Amino acid sequence: MRLVSIDNSEEGMVLAKPIFDENARILLNVGATLTQTHINRLKKRISFIYVKSEMTDDVIQVKDDIPFELRTKTISAISNVFSNLTDKQQKKNSIATTLYNFKNLKDTFSKVVQELRNSEGHLNLISHLQLNNDIIFEHSLNTSLYSLSIGKALGLPEKSLHILGLGALFHDIGKLHLPDHLFTKSQLTEEEEKLLQSHTKIGFDMLRKESDLHLLIAHCAYQHHENVDGSGYPRGIKGNDIHQFAKIVAVAEQFDQLVRHKSFLPHEAMEVLFGYCYIRYDLEIIEAFKKAVAIFPIGVTVTLNTGERGVVIAYNQKYPQRPKVRMFMDRNGRKLSISEFYDVDLLKNLTTMVVKCDAIIERKVTS
Length: 367
Hints:
367 residues, Molybdopterin biosynthesis moea protein, domain 2, Hypothetical protein af1432, 3 domains
């Protein structure tokens, strides 16, 4: 199994994992042989695929952190609740409908929390980036999954994880009350920037009135753009005045923005986060995130400082940033035959490191 950018895929490649649409329906199943027609259509929908590879099929088994069907059910439940909260202003929803949608979201989300709690490995970041879908519900769920992984690494109890996860789901709900052009315009005026920043207060005011939601969920919406040095908004609070959950959501949502909207690779996005330590983000939270996630996705092609090239085949549980790599090219640039492939454990070879990770997401924005 190997991870390949849809833009670098070729006719004749055989799928190692199924490809789903937004409704969890299978578009192409395992074993399907790609044609150019397939590739052209898929480019409009997804960023990457897993294909079979004789080099790694004996060692690589990639398991999604949450089943794709559960993911789509959760997104649907988020959409329904968001619609309830926004449409309630026009009195379009009955109390019974609102209560039902809240209960459905909580029940569905409980399954998500359990899936992640029971997972023994690291969060596979790439498994949450397959669909080219920029809607707020995808961003909300990704932010929640990343937040939960941080909370789990920090040792938060299950009740706190539920609150944190829901806080991350609802962190951007205030944006639904703002004009669409604010999210598509490349350069905002000062007035437009202030209007965009108001989504934190709007979200807080919406969520704190909901008796079905813990008040900390509202504070995640209110504080997730506050910075630890006091330079954030809406109140400019800093340090310990910012709730831990809001600090976690801030890191998680920025990571998702970097990998989904600016097309950074996971390890590059992590470097950006570390660059803002003590300014925007809490170091302890970023360190927890780094320990909880697989920065180099299994199946991705990497280049080492020795000049060797290979495919990541496994994580080291305590140090996921130092994976195990199966080499297909030696340090002299010679491609190896099947019988010559060899594995390098970067945890045992501390002077060896990854210096390049082949792009698996098309870079449409570079800054």
